[in-house]
């Protein structure tokens, strides 16, 4: 009997000790490894905000706006710790499917590209409790031409015409300087522009470029051709070669994403100059004078930050020169000081409101 009593006392002490351990574990302290913290960890995981990125067909290695989008996304991921979910689109027919997959597993979906306007309109309406943002576009119903204002869709737009203006100012001043000062110029006072598709972001770049190059040199001949493609470099190379061989264009501005790399290749092979787009493309060839830059990485990062901070808005401001949303890349050694100064003068005028480059090609 005494032995049973001793065992009972031991069992009672063990029970009390276990209760004390459980009580300590349930305090939710900073230890992080106690069993009592598991419910808090589960709750935290369930409440974590998930963010997905759906690229356009160029993919994250396009060295353009898809890559920049991924850069901004990666910066936000490192800061907020969400699990990466990046869907790279292979065909325009996959837009709806990819956005739907992203929305099913994420709280915020970022679509990259104007061509997803209809798809994001459709998917955002199917998932009204999820948030969406679209680079270069807006929610547009099928068959419509105007943007819809949906409470859960943020259109991320840029004043590309301002970036186009600045590189146009550089090109214009170089044409004014002429062959006597810049020996690589062909001397025909002609420049070429190779666009991808005639969509608003592309046309805004071209509008600003053409407007400002003619403000510097009203007599310059500006050739504009569209490749009808954003991914095939051969098409843009053919367009640029035609401008160079047939019209002696000595500066080629590419506004065609991955396709436009072919235009810069053509310019380099023919011994003339190129101007890149979206990101700094000076690494491609020494003949690239500069690039019209669109800071998509900033837009994507800021959008995710606002979402994480509970400040998501379906009416974000346009990303412009005054707010470091657009600009131009570092210039090459072939750009004379007066051309660099012309770009700076135009930049100051844009920021002050004295110069307003147009959105539409004139």
Automatic annotation (TrEMBL):
Keyword Membrane: yes
Main location: membrane
Location(s), subcellular: Cell membrane
Keyword Cell membrane: yes
Coiled coil feature spans: none
Gene Ontology CC terms, in alphabetical order: plasma membrane
Position of the signal peptide: 1-22
Gene3D superfamilies attached to this UniProt entry: 3.40.50.2300
Pfam families in UniProt: Bmp
Membrane topology annotation: Lipid-anchor
Entries under CDD domains matching the protein: PBP1_PrnA-like
Residue span(s) of domain ABC transporter substrate-binding protein PnrA-like: 50-353
Keyword terms, alphabetized: Cell membrane, Lipoprotein, Membrane, Signal
Family affiliation: Belongs to the BMP lipoprotein family.
PANTHER family per UniProt: ABC TRANSPORTER GUANOSINE-BINDING PROTEIN NUPN, TRANSCRIPTIONAL ACTIVATOR PROTEIN MED
Name of the protein in question: BMP family ABC transporter substrate-binding protein
